[in-house]
Design goal:
Length: 381
């Protein structure tokens, strides 16, 4: 991996700089510095999958498998390359000894699943010899992973019933909670959340667990979800105020915590943005990584880069691989606070948006640690 030569500044950027017409696999791979991309196909079971290994400099490439009815293989390839690269940055900035990878299965998760398909996929993953470790992602569930696991050891994020660590969402929420504390400390000089107004968008697995943690700290909480009955229920349980999803930017507050879908920080939402901090679990919060990162900086809004603050799930599965210890996981998740403070420091010193500062921190760690193998240890290869 040659970051200096190939790096583009934003790992999660939506658009490929190579147009559809000129799209070439090797161009795209070298531009983004991917180590290995493998196309797996077994028509007898209807499997078409791509595994992208972006980097194994820090360790085996870990990233979930996504099943999606991509319109073309080109679309699937672009997605897997982008996602794999994002995983490299996430693992690196979190301080894990993991590289970045991702897999996509081209197919409709509602129609195209079968035991044979997932077991075949598992065998292909096994054939990579541990260079890539898979997990669940969009379109894949626990039952699918059980089939994958029958054929490969290189799988994590499993349910408790089959010896895994179970749903990572409460740990992700804990990481977001520590991240919010770091942001509040950075902005207001004290990390107390008492009386701070936090709006949580999305009351799913992560959002609801986060509301519970915030309520325990006496924050003033506003909540919203597409399901208004559920929103009312959560509001009542935790003494929060329920608001309709489309009203979210009519309110003002200290912290906006996106815990639903991506792209929520965009031209429209930033027109009258009434929050001082953006810190939540959702992936790809910035619709345009470059432009909206810079705009947040211009507006003086403190942004906790999404892949840093939501790394609790990754920390959880990493620990599952090593032998799960709940206390150790909690301690490691607490480091999200320190990582964010370090990123805010870099952003100030180098006068760049926090999301770019975070990329730089990740790249520096990879570059520094890539030199480790220069020191020869006789017993190791
Ligand atoms: P989830 O599917 O359990 O919950 C998402 C919730 O958001 C749902 O209740 C949905 O109704 C709601 N929602 C969707 N659009 C909305 C809108 N416009 N306004 C208000 N609510 C809306 O998902 P989750 O597991 O809680 O994850 C939340 C986010 O965090 C996702 O972006 C996910 O990718 C990301 N994330 C999750 C984890 C994890 O451990 N679960 C880890 C890292 C990142």
């Amino acid at each position: 991996m040659q970051l200096a030569a190939h790096q583009t500044p934003y790992p999660g950027e939506a658009e490929s700089p190579i147009g559809e017409s000129s799209f070439g696999l090797f161009d795209e791979m070298s531009l983004r510095g991917h180590e290995q991309v493998v196309h797996f196909c077994d028509e007898s079971v209807g499997l078409r999958a791509i595994v992208a290994i972006h980097s194994t400099v820090l360790g085996p490439a870990l990233g979930g498998t996504r099943m999606w009815p991509y319109e073309s293989e080109t679309e699937a390839l672009k997605d897997v390359l982008r996602l794999a690269r994002g995983m490299t940055y996430k693992a690196a900035v979190t301080g894990l000894n993991l590289g970045g990878g991702k897999a996509v299965i081209i197919g409709d998760p509602k129609k195209d699943k079968s035991e044979a398909l997932f077991r075949t996929f598992g065998r292909f993953v096994e054939s990579l010899g541990g260079r890539y470790i898979t997990a669940e992602d969009v379109g894949i569930n626990v039952d699918d992973m059980e089939y994958v696991r029958m054929e490969t050891r290189h799988v994590t994020g499993l349910s408790r019933a089959i010896g895994g660590s179970g749903d990572p969402s409460p740990i992700t929420a804990l990481g977001v909670f520590h991240g919010i504390r770091a942001c509040v400390n950075e902005r207001f000089g004290s990390e107390s959340l008492a009386g701070r107004r936090v709006t949580v968008q999305g009351l799913g697995h992560v959002g609801t667990a986060l509301v519970e943690l915030l309520a325990a700290e006496n924050a003033e909480i506003l909540v919203t979800d597409l399901d208004m009955d559920w929103t009312e229920q959560v509001a009542q349980q935790y003494g929060a105020k329920a608001i309709a999803p489309d009203q979210i930017f009519q309110f003002e507050g200290d912290i906006f915590s996106p815990s639903a879908l991506g792209g929520v920080i965009n031209d429209k939402s930033l027109q009258h943005f009434g929050y001082q901090i953006v810190a939540g679990s959702a992936n790809n919060q910035l619709e345009d990584e470059v432009r909206h990162g810079e705009r947040l900086k211009e507006l003086g809004i403190l942004y906790a880069p999404d892949y840093v603050i939501n790394a609790g799930g990754l920390i959880n599965v990493w620990n599952e691989i090593q032998g799960y210890n709940a206390q150790k996981v909690q301690k490691e998740v607490g480091h999200i606070y320190d990582t964010l403070k370090q990123i805010f420091q870099i952003a100030k010193q180098e006068n760049v948006p926090t999301n770019l500062a975070s990329n730089r921190l990740a790249e520096r760690r990879i570059t520094q640690l890539s030199k480790l193998s220069q020191i020869h240890i006789p017993t190791r290869a």
